[in-house]
Write a structure and sequence with these properties.
With 650 residues, this protein is mainly α. Among the domains are: 198 residues, no CATH class; 240 residues, no CATH class. Helices cover 64% and strands 0% of the residues. It contains 30 helices and no strands. Helix 11 packs antiparallel against helix 12. It is globular. This is Membrane bound O-acyltransferase domain containing 2. GO terms for molecular function: acyltransferase activity. InterPro entries: LPLAT_7/PORCN-like, MBOAT_fam. It comes from Sparus aurata (Gilthead sea bream). Keywords: Acyltransferase, Endoplasmic reticulum, Membrane, Transferase, Transmembrane, Transmembrane helix.
Length: 650
Amino acid sequence: MVIAGGLDRHLSTHIITIFMVVQHSAAVKIVHVLRRDGVNQRLLPGQSALTEKTGRARAPFSVGAGVISSRLRTLCWMCAVDDKRPAPSQQQQQQQRQQRQCIYHRSGRGERSEPEEGESESVCVCVREREGERIYGHRPSMATQTTASCTGSTLLQPISEIINLPLDQVNFVACQLFALLMAVWFRIYLHPSKTSPFIRHVVATLLGFYLALFCFGWYSLHFLVQSGLSYSVMVFAGLEHMHKYCFIVTLSYLILCQITRVYVFDYGMYSADFTGPMMVITQKITSLAFEIHDGLTKRDAQLTPTQKYLAIRRMPSLLEYLSYNCNFMGILAGPTCSYNDYKAFIEGTGYQPRHQENANGKENGKYKQSEPSPKNDVISKLCTCAVSLAIYLSLCKLLPVEHAIDDDFVSSTPFHLQVIYLYLAMLALRPKYYFVWTLADAINNAAGFGFNGYNKDGSPRWDLISNLRILDIEFATSFKSFLDNWNIQTALWLKRVCYERCAINPTAATFLLSAMWHGVYPGYYLTFLTGIAMTMAARAVRHNIRPYFLVSDSYKNVYDVVTWASTQIAISYTVAPFVLLAVGPSLKFYRSWYFCLHLLCLLTVLVLPVKPRRRQAKEQQDGPQKDGLQDNQTDHNSTDNNCNQKDKAT
């Protein structure tokens, strides 16, 4: 540090001498070089801003190197050659030092932060954008800001700059579209009737690794490391406790990578990152470990119907394991699927059990003779993707969630309008997830994966691994109904590995696991802790109040309207910290609402009685036939049809 400081002083002295001797035109040329190479990249503590001519960031150096770059920019302004601007006054120099202090020592990442004592708010609001606007004379584009943070290929950088979207997001969409084309090719030319499962496993795995390398570069090695460590635990650990060790190792490695990405490299970046695929791989590995444990250590009488169906009776080979975790259809955005369903898809046996049933439950030779085509469902889902993307790009900047905590907005806007704005802001945010998950579902369907039997009219269903049901989300009349239709495969994973196996307070344990799995931002934990209270309060209301509104259709319609509005407000209130990420903005939002829903949930739980979990389970066992009939009408997932749908009544 001392050496770097000494070099800093000597270098500054020499540069001042140069600026006093050389001609004005030469000084201008030097400034242009410094503007291009010195400040084009966002500075992190201990990272150099000096870049090569290619614009790619070099490896981090000492803190002194970053200080040197700052001094060089200061000298440029002192010499008054930066766009012929006059030398800054003493007050302006003080503001510049405060801005650099905000960048290096407080938030360090350019997010909105509160001004410290003695600072004006303008110094600390959107530091990164103001820094770029002050230096360049205009605000740098989104593509420019995120180019340095993209660890994948830069082949599509020109497209990123044209459409003004982050390069990593452009890479993600391009890879998903490429995967869609490969899925069609995979289904036609590598059909199970034309090639062996070995070839299908190899091709699916290699294509997956290629997409990972294109999107994330060398960070994709984490996928192999995580998978390799977990497979070693499966092989060498005893079967009795293998699933527990595997769960701990896999989740710990994911959390370690999330901590590194968030607090070391890039806090607050809402963009594609390598931990996203790792979250899906974590689900697959832990599910596989529990399914192997169930299949090799338990008798059928000890398993639930779902666990019996999912149980794995043979340890997968390394190729089968890697293909399941890293296949090109789900490497970037999932969704999670069971190993048995994936194996049946690879071997071409996924259609056979379902060919023997139609709308009447009888064998129909027509369906046995021809394989159902996913063409119509794929086209429909791609249209949904296009509409979702258009809506998101049109509304995301018009209705930012951060505006809900703006001081002027909170002080000047009536509370009921604040509620409406929050709902609209969350409504504008959801199409992003609709686009990503629906596109991922379409890719799997295009490859022939996701067939789930037939509808009553005889049309094929391709929702085996669907991750959401949009209409059920937007018109949900209960908190649980919303969660059941949002990120479906993750909800099933949480249920199978935690809720059904946890003996003590499974609801709280499930929400805590969900928070840990999502990441290390404090806002995630605030969201899921609030979700526990919301779930308990909603359950109490449903059990104690809903029966009074079922006496007539008109009463039920009134109840549905009121509960729909309440559900949307509760979801928006709960999820706000998930979007705001940091503790300060999240608590500021809750304070602006006076923690009203927290207090209301607490009061509801204390006043209204809630049935114990064991009593609920006993009541469900007393009426299996009624629940089974309900399951047939709302059948959404083949592996949970006969044992999970009845839980939705609670």
